Input
Amino acid sequence: MVSIKIFYKTPNEIMDIVREIREDGLIQGKDFDFAYNQSRWDEMIGEIPTHTVFTFYTEKYASFVALKYGH
Output
């Protein structure tokens, strides 16, 4: 299992990415899952930016998405 964080994307942008991943043949719940997290303030760290965590159950899919959508 491999997790990838994608920062500073709106919910609409994330849903576009999810649709593209599904169109590529991956199945949500079997091949990948994702969780959108709004930005928030933490007293110890400061601002934690908006980010989405994609979890892939096969490493090759994680590598592809990281290269395509990462910074």
In short: Residues 2-69 form a domain with the Ribosomal Protein S8; Chain: A, domain 1 fold (CATH 3.30.1370).
